[in-house]
Specification:
The complex is a heterodimer of chains A (about 1000) and B (about 270). Chain A contains 31 helices and 43 strands. Chain B is about 30% helix and about 25% strand.
Chain lengths: ~1000, ~270
């Protein structure tokens, strides 16, 4: 029994939280809620004297606006239903944790180790609702039943119900034990072990493990150490997570037999080595600004003589499908830890996010167990917003794409840009070394059952029975405390190395770090636990959040631990790094497992994957007669993928740190998306970083080579568009693919694998030619969902994130038109490339034939693009450009529109002047050809501009006008005639 | 001598870097100190000429913005803070810092009572956090030392709970009578205080964006002056540049230079 305190607003104090619930219930669920009043419930699971309880109650409420009561506040005068939502046992309760701090502060004493506070929320709903409707509001709007408890009461039931004082504490009194798995069984039994344990190990991998334990030297060593001959649970779990697709990237490491459309076959030994690593190695020969690539948690490049900058992007797709809020907040604070765990400890500058969802307006049948995409979208935004805002990290870039193939699995990309001082403690900051004898130290949050099997689970397709413990909820405040402490400790030289605890928890972080020293003796006895009852293997594998693993020299331990205490950060010794070549794990004097590092890291059998490319035949939409396209342009501006994403974006903090220069939204009304984001890195300098991205899953329906080449070009030209240096761009590749491995459930594996090969080939071709090194990347390869007998696979998606440099932020150029009378130029060639374009998709959908999106996809003239980017940089440095904007989705027509809207200025365009190659009216307006810009220039500098672009595709196509209208003519005939207000309305009301 | 300014950190406050830069630009000597260090070594506070409580998300805004941080200050530093105020020192709270000062009772600090809250910052009308720029108008006859000579200014807001709410009408009328609301949200088109979103981003009563105490030495506001130190922070700096209207510094610096001037004169 706990002490129950209820907190509610005083009479007459507005309740925006309740009003929001009523509004959403109306809008989303179409139920007649007339009002909603909310209250908070606190269950203090600690023995407090009555006076102490009253002190606590007074301290947790705002005396100006709130009332409190022990047990229950009086019920509101009238309500139809009360919904009370709490957490299930073991689920992170951040408000509960904060309340525990208050209890300790006001009582002036520490609570017991497992004396906690639990919270719940009450919603008093009014309106003519039946029980089923109240229940729907509870389950489809307010709670995620996977992690939360829902109680629904009618007023009479509430009056009679006993006061609930039962805290959702974890009660597990089981003794720690170490089980073994008998692998000397037949193949069916081996696979049963893999499946039942959510190990995601294939039969070949199970065989490799079995064979390892059969080895004479292994048997002898195990006997000597007193370990059973067969693997222990801890060992098998540790191998499974180390070998998971998530950690081992087996598909990118596989031997691929690739057959092209002519029937010619080649063998590719590892896509990663052949294309990605090779790109960077080749580019590295020509540049001198790479600092650390591939080997660390984030890629690091030089910025100036004081700072390096780093960038990492991760995905958190499966967890976000199960619990959008928890999955997404864990995604963002997780990638923050990657930045923190880079070199000797990175400092965070900004976050990026990008999501792929089903349409929020989807009204078709949803396979059982899937959440509506609108709900996923709301939850994901909310999670990344809370994670970023509460961590004090501004967002720099954000984007969303919509396609109903993301119904089964949303894609949630989260990135972090950080900085590292060039030297720390007299040595290079990117160094990562661990010395035998260093203590293994865990810092930050506590270990629970949350997140066990996250790595192996994300390596599977989403099933209805996917485990609830894979869901975690991040705690940004615990992490922020740890972050500040770690930077302080770094600058005091109190630790030698660090890495984050992500997938696989300690088993992964220690498993990786101990390669630097050559072994580890781990002792889990003192690992701080959230609650009792965890098995040793669970402690080792737990993915509980907000934890870093450090190597602390014994001589620094006391100072390290003392500082941690003053900063309210929990740290614990969990072993010692060694050079024995073995990872051994103890718990309360019992040896729970020992694994040779060679086997653990290199024993995983290589996959062999067939890939067969057959170009898909995709018909184009039927051609339209030449004529006015105003109607189509308005539709395009309002299309989900083109329209403004500002409403959600404004909930993210984009300006903390005060370093922003070109923000994600620009223009007279600050409502047009910028091509790229520019920010300072330090307060005393005018140098800046530039951040952008390219993503276009729609082109994958035609050819993933064109898709990948286009997104690389987009990521690069966006940087150049705002004034970023064309020769200082680093790239990050994040692949999200459907399972491409041929199997019974994936008969089309060879095609999907061929798509992967082609995307990699394009990445290599374009990046080596552009001189863009790939400094970091990640892949997520099982983005399929099988529910209700229906398999939904995502379209292959490559996010290409770019990090560039600008020497003087005051030279940055933004996309809005600036002045009446300025000359409008188009740079770069427009071609007959409408395949997979937003326009063709819109047309195909309007014709009721949504598959008819064909046509030529955008091509890439690499040498032409390079010359253009070089010249554009020159024009920017010379201050010739008043505005610069690169067309993407929707082509030139949308680009003209957005630049006009941004400046609240009109424009008159003569389309026939646009530099082109075989483009008709529709292609000129809507083709998404690569490497193009719409720029404006003061009339008196037109000649200078033309000189800079001499010999390149560059033409003056029109003039900026004061009248707020867009006029586009084609050989004298009007093809677009639109007032700005109509375009703005369409653009801003799409979502 | 450059006046020493203590900037409190810890538990999710997060504007320490830009705030320190602001004080430095203004000619002060900022010092960052974790709340726990100040509790342990109150001399840190005693030696400071000014205290700044910065923005951020102390304790995640759980239990209401600023409440838990304020609670810790009240339980562990109350006498020190009272003594600090008694010595005539200055206090600036921005965003979460303003919320903390209000929940402590420091603002509006009527009748010299700095530890009985009479004002709260409540959830925005729109129900959630917002980040965009607003325009403020300053009251020329407010006692606030931070806003002396200011007329209008654009600043970013970044908060979920910025709606000023008073315990009673009496409190509100005393605030107005004593000119303790030095800045208000205005509609740029009319120059008048407004209740309308987005110009008034949270629905704050009387469009109040910030409050000071009757001495004018304690001041808190929701918008972020420390986020407008560079001219390029302004969302329309690109247009200002084309028009040749780009200022040398971001306007937010004025709050800090005013404070330093006051301290030098005091």
């Amino acid at each position: 029994m706990a002490i129950r305190i209820e907190v509610g607003l005083k009479d007459g104090v507005p309740d925006p939280r309740g009003a929001g619930v009523a509004r959403q219930a109306h809008a989303y669920l179409h139920v007649p809620v007339t009002a909603c009043a909310t209250r908070d419930v606190f269950l203090v699971d600690a023995p407090l004297a009555d006076a102490e309880a009253r002190t606590v109650a007074a301290a947790i409420a705002d005396p100006v606006t709130q009332d409190t009561a022990m047990n229950r506040l009086p019920a509101p005068a009238s309500f139809a239903w009360l919904v009370e939502i709490g957490f299930k046992p073991g689920v992170t309760d951040n408000v509960g944790r904060t309340t525990r701090t208050v209890v300790q502060d006001v009582l002036g004493r520490a609570l017991g180790e497992y004396e906690d506070v639990y919270t719940a929320t009450q919603y008093f709903l009014s309106g003519a609702l039946d029980r089923e409707q109240a229940d729907r509001i509870a389950r489809e709007l307010l709670a995620n039943p996977l992690i939360q408890t829902v109680r629904v009461y009618a007023p009479g039931e509430w009056a009679l119900a006993p006061v609930n004082t039962e805290p959702p504490a974890m009660h597990d009194a089981s003794e720690p034990q170490v089980r073994t798995f008998d692998l000397e069984v037949d193949d069916n039994a081996l696979m049963k072990i893999s499946r039942d344990g959510i190990l995601s190990l294939t039969l070949e991998e199970m065989h490799a493990i079995r064979d390892y334990y059969r080895r004479d030297d292994v048997r002898a060593a195990r006997a000597k150490a007193g370990l059973p001959a067969q693997p222990t649970d801890l060992e098998l779990e540790c191998i499974a997570q180390t070998w998971s697709e998530h950690c081992k990237h087996k598909i990118f490491a596989a031997r691929v037999q690739y057959t092209d459309e002519t029937g010619a076959t080649r063998v590719i030994d590892s896509l990663f080595k052949t294309f990605i690593k090779a790109t960077t190695e080749e580019v590295a020969k020509r540049i001198d600004w790479l600092v650390s690539v591939f080997s660390d948690n984030a890629g690091v490049v030089k910025f100036n003589e004081r700072w390096h900058v780093l960038f990492k992007v991760e995905t958190h797709n499966s967890p976000s499908a199960l619990d959008p809020y928890g999955g997404a907040i864990t995604g963002i604070v997780g990638v923050n830890r990657d930045a923190m765990g880079t070199g000797v400890g990175g400092e965070m500058l900004c976050n990026t996010w990008g999501y792929c969802f089903g349409s929020p307006f989807y009204d078709g049948e949803l396979p059982r167990g899937l959440m509506h995409p609108r709900r996923i979208r709301d939850g994901v935004h909310h999670g990344v917003i809370d994670g970023g805002n509460q961590s004090g990290i501004p967002w720099a870039r954000g984007w969303e794409r919509f396609d109903d193939r993301f119904l089964g699995k949303p894609l949630v990309f989260c990135g972090t840009v950080g900085k590292l001082p060039v030297t720390v403690g007299g040595g290079p900051s990117e160094r990562k070394e661990v010395v035998p004898g260093d203590f293994i130290v865990q810092a930050g949050g506590r270990v629970g059952k949350d997140g066990i099997h996250g790595a192996t689970f994300s390596s599977e397709e989403l099933r209805q029975e996917s485990p609830a413990q894979a869901v975690q909820i991040g705690d940004p405040i615990t992490q922020r405390k740890m972050y500040e402490f770690l930077i302080e400790a770094r600058d005091l030289g109190l630790f030698r190395a660090l890495t984050d605890n992500g997938a696989g928890g300690l088993s992964s972080s220690i498993g990786e770090m101990c390669r630097l020293s050559g072994g580890a003796e781990v002792d889990l006895t003192d690992a701080p636990l959230k609650y009792e009852g965890l098995q040793p293997w669970e402690i080792f594998l737990s993915e509980a959040q907000e934890r870093m693993t450090l190597a602390v020299p014994p001589a620094q331990w006391d100072a390290f631990a003392a500082l941690a205490k003053r900063r309210d950060v929990e740290v614990a010794k969990v072993g010692t790094f060694t050079d024995t070549g073995v990872l051994r794990v103890w718990h309360r004097d019992r040896l729970c497992g020992a694994l040779g590092l060679d086997f653990l890291h290199d024993g995983c059998p290589k996959l062999e994957i067939p890939a067969v490319w057959a170009p898909p035949r995709v018909p184009a939409p039927r051609a339209l007669r030449a004529g006015d396209r105003s109607r189509w342009l308005v539709k395009l501006l309002g299309a989900l993928n083109v329209c403004s994403k500002e409403e959600k974006s404004r909930i993210y903090d984009g300006e903390v740190k005060g370093l922003s220069v070109v923000k994600p939204f620009v223009g007279v009304r600050s409502d047009m998306p910028s091509d790229a984001t520019v920010m300072r890195v330090e307060y005393g300098s005018r140098e800046g970083i530039v951040i952008a991205e390219g993503v276009n899953p729609f082109l994958s329906d035609l050819d993933t080579y064109a898709m990948a080449a286009s997104v690389v070009d987009e990521g690069v030209r966006r940087i150049v568009s705002v004034g970023g240096r064309w020769d200082r761009i680093a790239g990050l590749d994040n692949f999200c693919w459907p399972d491409p491995v041929l199997s019974e459930k994936t008969p089309d594996g060879p095609y999907k694998m061929a798509q992967l090969v082609r995307a990699n080939q394009a990445l290599y071709d374009v990046c080596t030619a552009y001189g863009v090194p790939l400094v970091s990347g990640k892949d997520s390869m099982k983005n399929d969902s099988v529910r209700g007998g229906r398999k939904i696979s995502i379209p292959p998606t490559l996010l290409f994130s770019t990090l560039g440099k600008i020497d003087d932020v005051r030279q940055a150029v933004t996309m809005p038109f600036k002045r009446e009378g300025d000359a409008i130029f188009v740079l770069g060639l427009t071609k007959d490339e409408l395949g997979g374009s937003e326009y063709h998709r819109l047309r195909a959908k309007a014709a009721g034939q949504p598959h008819r999106v064909g046509g030529a996809p955008p091509s890439l003239d690499i040498e032409g693009a390079k010359s253009l980017y070089h010249a554009l940089n020159e024009a920017q440095v010379r201050g010739l450009l008043r505005s610069c904007h690169t067309p993407t989705l929707g082509g030139l027509a949308v680009a003209f529109s957005l630049s006009a809207l941004g400046g609240e200025l009109g424009a008159r365009i003569e389309l026939e002047r646009v530099p082109e190659q075989g483009a008709d009216l529709d292609a000129l307006l809507f083709a998404e050809s690569n490497s193009r810009f719409v720029v404006t220039c003061a009339p008196e500098r037109v000649a200078e501009l033309e000189a800079v672009f001499r010999g390149l595709p560059c033409a003056r196509v029109g003039t900026v006008e004061a009248a707020p209208e867009l006029h586009v003519t084609f050989f004298g005939r009007p093809v677009v005639e639109l007032p700005l207000e109509k375009m703005r309305k369409a653009f801003k009301q799409g979502l | 001598m450059n006046p020493p300014i203590l900037i409190l950190t810890g538990y999710g406050l997060n504007c320490e870097a830009e705030s320190a830069h602001a004080w430095r630009l203004a000619g002060a000597e900022p010092r960052l100190a974790h709340l726990n260090d100040v509790v342990e070594t109150p001399a840190l506070l005693r030696e400071a000429a000014g205290l700044m409580v910065i923005g951020g998300f102390s304790f995640g805004d759980h239990l209401g913005s600023g409440l838990v941080y304020a609670n810790r200050v009240r339980t562990q530093l109350r006498d020190e803070v009272q003594a600090f105020l008694d010595r005539g020192r200055i206090v600036l709270g921005v965003c979460n810092g303003f919320q903390i000062l209000a929940k402590l009772g420091l603002l509006p600090g009527l009748d010299g009572d700095y530890f009985t809250p009479t004002v709260s910052l409540q959830q925005n009308d729109c129900g959630h956090f917002q980040n965009f720029w607003v325009r403020l108008r300053f009251e020329p006859d407010s006692p606030c030392i931070f806003t002396k000579g200011l007329t209008q200014m654009d600043l970013p807001i970044r908060h979920g709970e910025g709606r000023v709410f008073t315990a009673s009408r009496a409190v509100l009328s005393r605030i107005e009578r004593k000119k303790l609301a030095p800045c208000r949200y205005i509609d740029p088109a009319t120059g008048k205080a407004t209740q309308k979103f987005p110009h008034n981003p949270n629905g704050s009563v009387k469009a109040i964006a910030g409050l000071c105490d009757p001495t004018g030495r304690v001041f808190g506001l929701m918008p972020h002056p420390e986020a407008y130190l560079f001219p390029e922070n302004h969302p329309h700096w690109d247009v200002q540049k084309v028009r040749g209207e780009l200022p040398e510094h971001g306007a937010g610096l004025s709050f800090f230079t005013n404070a330093v001037e006051y301290l030098r004169g005091a």
